[in-house]
Write a structure and sequence with these properties.
By secondary structure, the protein is mostly helical. It folds into two domains: 79 residues, RNA polymerase sigma factor, region 2, helix turn helix motif (Rna Polymerase Sigma Factor, Chain: A, Orthogonal Bundle); 96 residues, Arc Repressor Mutant, subunit A, CATH 1.10.10.10. 76% of the residues lie in helices and 0% in strands. The chain has nine helices and no strands.
């Protein structure tokens, strides 16, 4: 029998249960919004965590340990599915970014509520379209609130590499949102 199975399964179950919702949300973001893919990723990650639960020395670090396993499992799956280099695009100026954001000011009219929902969908799509390596860095820091140091440890990269990935991910989001905004404005003018 493996050592992980001799560790207190109840403690593992409590740890996973406590963080299951946020793990699932993160899995959804990491795989681009596909429910079945997110469930598969989460299942693989939880299984891997269970197999290595004996290696968790500090229960206080359980959350970051689980997220690290989730992210690494996803990145391993992505690498196995296709090996490609990260793509870079031109940076969007601050004024152009501000212009794109100004189209998404909340208001109370039904038309504006619809537009806000459409904008949220565009943001989610832009996040889902990010390169998985960039998306993982951004989700861990900007969505889940981990520090850059914690996220770098989870991803097993130097902090400088993580900072670069976050910068590129944000730049990609700005570009995608700017393009989406221009397309929407073009449709409204017709």
């Amino acid at each position: 029998m493996r050592r992980a199975h001799q560790v207190h399964p109840r403690a593992f179950e409590e740890l996973v249960t406590e963080h299951l919702d946020s793990l699932y949300r993160t899995a959804l973001r990491l795989v681009g919004g596909g429910v079945a893919d997110a469930e598969d990723l989460l299942q693989d990650a939880v299984l891997r965590a269970f197999e290595h639960f004996a290696q968790l020395r500090n229960q206080e670090a359980g959350r970051s340990w689980l997220f690290a396993i989730l992210v690494r499992t996803n990145l391993n799956r992505v690498r196995a599915a296709y090996r490609r280099s990260e793509q870079l695009t031109a940076d969007l100026s601050d004024s152009a970014f501000e212009e794109a954001l100004s189209a998404w000011q909340p208001s109370a009219t039904p038309e504006e509520i619809f537009e806000r929902r459409e904008s949220a969908d565009r943001i989610v799509k832009a996040l889902d379209d990010l390169n998985p390596v960039l998306r993982a860095a951004l989700v861990l820091t900007d969505v889940e609130g981990f520090s850059q140091r914690e996220a770098a440890q989870m991803l097993e990269v130097p902090e400088g590499t993580l900072a670069s990935r976050i910068f590129r991910a944000r730049r990609e989001l700005r570009r995608a949102l700017s393009e989406s905004s221009r397309e929407l404005q073009g449709r409204e003018r017709r």
